[in-house]
Amino acid sequence: MKRKIGLGIFFGLILIISLFYFFSINTLPSSLSIIKGNESTFNINFPFSLHIQKSGRGIGLKINGQVLGQKEFRIKENQLQVKGDKVGSTSLNVRLFGIIPLRTINVNVLPDVKVYPGGQAIGVLLRSKGVMVVGKSFVEGKDGRKYYPAVQSGIEVGDTILKINGIEVYDKVKLASLIQKMAPGGKLTLEIKKKDGRIKKIPVNPVKNKQGKYMIGLYVDDGVAGVGTLTFFDPKSGEYGALGHVITETNSQVKIDIRQGKIIEARISGINTGKRGLPGEKLGTFFQTKQILGEIRKNTQYGIYGKLNRLPENPYFNEPIPVLPASQVQEGQAKIYTVIKGGKIEEFDVSIDRVYHQSHPGAKGMIIRITDPQLKKATGGIIQGMSGSPIVQNNKLVGAITHVFVNDPTRGYGVFAEWMVLQTGLYDKARAVQ
């Protein structure tokens, strides 16, 4: 009987320790980014002794106000405060009783990069590297029969035509011209970039249609144009980030490789209000030859990037503000900046309803909810063209709006500002001078 009671107590203790472990250790991140000179605090409601030791050399850190050397540090408080006074990275090993491994925390101390939030409406013009295949068709030959030369050769929607018979193709006009010029000589060899990135040479037999023109049975395009929002810019270098998501070809959803691109000042002339099941959009106007803000150099999962020709203004910020690391973003109230009429930037209330802890860059880092009555009345919530609208919390740039929930236009996703700024190289430049 005593043995059974003893076993019951033993397993009860194991269960209690396991529960404390589960709930407490999950408050500790597997990766942590902090700004140089700042600290990050975590609550640890753990009844047993936790020990921390730095793995390898790495940078020096302060744990609960004390410098952490190579020796093990025992956490006596119910809080863990991590502070980095030097830019760099290291790892922390957390152990129970100094013996049982619990978690490894990868710590990255970032330079204090400050940028101006955007909010300006921009026109986005992209020209693709090669000609994109956006649809397939038949060719009605001179004999009245239907032919499918491109389909039979294995060309698919989402592929990109780079060359014909070794000659580079820059746009769809050039493509059509080369087909007419070279087709009388027989079979064409197209150099194709497939959707998965492979480069293939594909032979195609062009067909002469009833009008006497040679065709290969494809719908093609060589660029896109649209309206979005500038997220941030660096006042010193002119480097900027916008949109917060990748630009893809509409039909295939394949990322567009940039040959050239530019962003242009835009004006919002109207709003199609978002409804459940039907996303809204900003109606914008811009002129390709005027008010060019800058060039586009990169089209990534986290937005478009390049350099500004001139610096725009945001009336809400007289000075650049810090970029908050992803691991520091908190759920709660925040502000966004965007244009809903003309070219005037306005400030609106939002709520960060959920934060996803990401140890590596990811496109969907948080869930945003529009709470501002004025914005909900004007737009119905998050709409197309609002992508890239900066999210600011406690006077720090935390991210940008990227996507809307189709079934609830007041809610959508946001990307962390840290991942966007990482694309510009601003962190690397700041490290070089520190």
TrEMBL record:
Keyword DNA-binding: no
Taxonomic lineage: Bacteria, Bacillati, Bacillota, Clostridia, Halanaerobiales
TM annotation in the entry: 7-25
UniProt cross-references to Pfam families, sorted A to Z: PDZ_2, Peptidase_S55
NCBIfam families cross-referenced by the UniProt entry: spore_IV_B
Name used for this protein in its record: Peptidase S55 sporulation stage IV protein B
Organism: Halothermothrix orenii (strain H 168 / OCM 544 / DSM 9562)
Key words of the record: Membrane, Transmembrane, Transmembrane helix
Domain Peptidase S55, chain residue ranges per copy: 198-434
